[in-house]
Amino acid sequence: MNPREVYPNAPLVSVSFELRHPESEMPTSKQRSLFKDLIREHLPVMRIRQSTVQTFEIGPAGPSHQVVNEDVPKYFNRENTMAVSLLKGSTLVETTDYPGWEKFREIVSAACQARDRIGGIDGIERIGLRYIDEIRIPGTNATPDWKTYLNESLLGPRDGGGAGMGLQQWQGMAVYGPESGRSLVLRYASGDGFAADPNGELRRKSPSYPGPFFLLDIDSFWIPESGFPEFSDSLLLAEGDALHAPVRQTFENLITDQLRNEVLRK
């Protein structure tokens, strides 16, 4: 296994990076324009999206429910495969066409520095890096024999059980950490259709068709052990590198050489 190998047929369908920070006011029109100028090299197209926030309060007159619509600025690349969203409490970078960690971290750094420059980052609450894979076996519409492609630890309970019926779907979760504030959560499941919406706002790297797949959802994140560290690009990148390091190793430990040779390297 080459830890830096780029698979021609990689199963990644979504990668996201979130910098969560204390809530601030949404960017003004002037701040949105400044952010666009700062990020133009990577994400030159701005769109405004509406976010719906629901609140429930209990007062002297009883419970009350309020729905608030907020304008959220979102910046896209020209291929419509990557975007950054400026939310009240976070800066979110998403892509459906992952360019590799080095390039992705460059865009993450530019987006977060631009957010800090226009105001809105008063500290760091959480840094998260999430990879979603839809593993599919070409040429079959039937459920694959996953034990030839995946680590046995992912394969769920044995067929049959007390009812004598074949096992069709299963799901699980494993939590690692925290160590120095860092944790990794692995979610996995067999499924049919899609794990990530094929009609989502970002265009998928290549067309995909509904059918059996296996989900690997790896969420690597850091939560400061005390307080809210001041934002700095060096801290952001150091923690990003530390969070990225176990992701590839986790993925490689969960697949077999048969999947690598028959599917991923084709």
Number of domains in the coordinates? 1
The stretches of 5 or more residues where confidence is low (pLDDT under 50) are none
Mean pLDDT: 88
Proportion of beta-strand residues: 25-35%
The helicity comes to 10-25%
Q: What is the helix tally?
A: 4
Q: Strand order, biggest sheet?
A: 2-3-4-5-1-6-9-8-7
The description of the largest β-sheet is: 9 strands, antiparallel
Q: What is the first-to-last residue Cα distance?
A: 16 Å
Q: Could you give the order of the helices and strands? A: EHEEEEHEEEEHH
Overall structural class, as computed from helix and strand content, comes to alpha+beta
Compute the CA-based radius of gyration. Answer: 21 Å
Number of strands: 9
Shape: globular
Chain-wise SSE layout:
Blueprint: E1 12-20, H1 29-39, E2 45-59, E3 62-76, E4 82-86, E5 90-95, H2 101-118, E6 126-135, E7 171-179, E8 182-192, E9 212-222, H3 233-254, H4 257-264
Antiparallel strand pairs: 1-5, 1-6, 2-3, 3-4, 4-5, 6-9, 7-8, 8-9
Structural write-up:
With 266 residues, the protein is of the alpha+beta class. It has one domain. Helix content is 22%, strand content 34%. The chain is built from 4 helices and 9 strands. It has helices at residues 29-39, 101-118, 233-254, 257-264; strands spanning 12-20, 45-59, 62-76, 82-86, 90-95, 126-135, 171-179, 182-192, 212-222. The chain has a 9-stranded antiparallel beta sheet with strand order 2-3-4-5-1-6-9-8-7. A hairpin with a 3-residue loop joins strand 4 (82-86) and strand 5 (90-95). Helix 1 packs antiparallel against helix 2 (101-118) and helix 2 packs antiparallel against helix 3. The longest helix has 22 residues, at 233-254. The radius of gyration is 21 Å and the shape is globular.
